[in-house]
Here is the input.
Amino acid sequence: MKSFRNVGNGIKIISVAVFLILLLTLVFYFLFKDSSTLISEMIVNKIQYDASKEIDDALTRLSNDRQKADIIVGTETNNGVIALTFDGLSDRETMDKIIVLLNENKMNGTFFVSGIEAAEDGEAVKNIVTNNQMVGNYTLSGSKDIMNLSQQEQIEDLCRANLVLKSILGITPTLLKCNTTHYGDSILESAYASNLNKVVLSNQYLSYQSFSSYEMTTNYIRNIKTGTIVSIKLDDVLDESEYRKSNQPIQPAIDKKTLDKKSTEESVTEEEQLIQMITWLLKALKENGVRTVFVDDDALTTAAIITSQESKGSSQGSQTAAFLGLPIVSSSQTKLPEKNNDSKTDQIDYPDFKPMIEKNEQKKAPVASHLYTSEKGVVFTFRGISNEVVLDNVLGELEDMGNAKATFFVTAEEIEAYPSRIARIIEKGHELGNGGVTQDSHLQNLSVEEVCKEIYRCDLLLTSIGVNSNNYMPGYGYTEGNIREAVSVISNGEKEYNLITYTVSMVRNSFSTMPADEIIETCLPVYVYKSLKRGDIAYFRMDSTVFNDNAEMVGELVSLVAENYVFNGYVSVCVDSTEEDSKFETRQIPINFEILPLSHMINTYENFETGTRGLYSIQSPSEAVEIDKIDSETADQMIYSNYIGNPSVSGSQLKGFIDTTGIDTTGKIDENSENVIYLTFDDWGGDPVIMSILDVLEKHQVEASFFVIAKNIDIDQEDLPKEEQVSPNPNLLREMALKGHDICSHNYFHMLIDIDDDLKQKETLQHELVRSYKTLSMIVGDIAEPKLFFRPPTLAVSQTGLQTVFESGYKKSISGDFSVHDYDCTSAEEVFNTLEYGNGTYEIGAGSIVILHMNDQSGFTAEGLDIFLTENANKPEEERYEFAKLSDYLNEE
Here is the structure.
């Protein structure tokens, strides 16, 4: 019995022990549901990490010196870098993959790790530093609550986190990042007292949900400002302040529900999505030439640190200052006018625009309705994304075109209301622009300050979705009222704005009952528009009620404009020619322009040396070369030495001459028996006809001489009567010069020079001759000055007229011996036959100056010339012509 009782007692003891173990397990389970909580309690209760000394020292420093830590905040630089931070820790496998990606792409990242996470996985933290990346303090738990703690509690939190990191790494971090989008004085003082001398404030936030495609990632990187601090949250999604807060830069707008659904359907874990996002991001950075640096790198902090002496008010205000370089009006509440004239309170810390308005002295920003570019591209702009059906239809039409990329100007309200629509626009590779706030005519009644605030508010929201745009298009393209002055004011900050309107608007109230083809003919009549010109801006309004329930109309207009005025254009061809009259019809030919994003067009600059086409500067009248005039006696002598005439203009047709002996009537250049001929082109036309000629010349590597009616490229025609003004096309002249051709004058208005000996006629002619050269020089003078060569319109001359040409400063007056009359040819074969076999009176020979045309009626010229040059290249060498431009053989003496 005794032994049995002993056994029984042993069982009781074991039972009690088991019961106690289970009880303690349950207690620990409910008190410490995860290891993070347990580790946190261990740290706080000094079980493993005793930071008492560090905390006491920090509190002493705080009481002796209320100095604040410096804030590192992203500020735009020009050195092609951004800072990349990783906030929190993920699982070990994911962390290892991130480190590998950084090393493979030779990128640097700063990892902000909380004390608890570090204590849980010290090896992961060591691995970061071992692989030459940086670690900073992310507080004890990475909680947002630290901002609401007392300063003693903040210091206890920061010192304990630092001690954990020091115990793992052997060094004490000096960088702090809190899980917040702003810093107050309290946390800045606590950080400095805890030996955390710098705190990091991110401009933009990303998570595993941020991008759904590589194209979207690339667009994000292309729009990001260098100097930005981008934070990737490794263990969390973005909260409301990071995802939607209007005055903080955050991640691109994504339809979170859509992405979550997609992820579920494809059974992709959050960690896998995170790795995919980081892979895309690093690849896009590398392909766009952007490198990443540590947040305290000199390349970033030289411009980005806000010292404790400089930081007044909230850090939000400091970010505002970084945007414009302006003094801050802290915690302001501004009433912004709405369409219905009601107002709402806008919680934005606006810059104080008043000093800038005064400093601007009422200057007005220029208006861009057309871009001066040599690039073969046009811009399609859109406004109004409230009608989702219309938007999707337009996006579909653009996608069907292949590489067409457009610019969508969105308002602050639209950015907030339609994140999924914004995301679709970006995913398709299109770009966003600043559409302000007020869209209707009320915008024109706002004060300068109110317009500045509208631009600023929309910019903050664009920045918040990862878009950096300095293009502002007011509602309906308005530029009246105070709009231009406001854009000038806000451009005096660090961000210069382009005020965008349009060349042609495709949606108007008067179009409500018209079919699409009639609208096109009304907006772009073929007798005026042979195509859109390179640099033109076509504007489509998508939210208009003009077309009632026809949701496909805007998309149809987009398609028709692209097909008929961008990818193709119009020329006129002669179908019947008699001595009394010629009949013409319109035909289409390809021009292969592109639809390009506005930012691309504005940020691509011409480079003559590399052959890059892009924006160029038109010289001012004061910069343009003035022709040196000469006296009448010298001019008379030059008629006999520097005038190259025409066989049909001789004898009595040389008006006003008493003696025509010695005046050239051959129309040729003595080329010392070389078999050289000179192709020349007169007048002016649209892009389709002139580009087709330039393409043929380039195909055969032939350079020619172009005699231009200068009014057609003059951007300043305000002094002309309205009926005489034309839509200028300087970009096309620029293309001629870039291809190496001679640019010469065919007068300004095409005024004939067979004038009488009349002082008034002579003064009028001289004014036109001088203006013609100066206009040409303003456009191409920086490439190569126009040649001082003049061709008399219709080849008609007089003694007074030629004298005036030379008195005005021209060195040569050149007619030529062979006129093709290509504008009257009824086929390309007729153009070729005339060139090859003559015009019935004259034939081409060595030294011939061939007169062709580039007006819109010369629709067969390019094709006929192509046949002629091809046939010539196939001839035996002794029969083959060489081709030269006039300046190759004629000097300007």
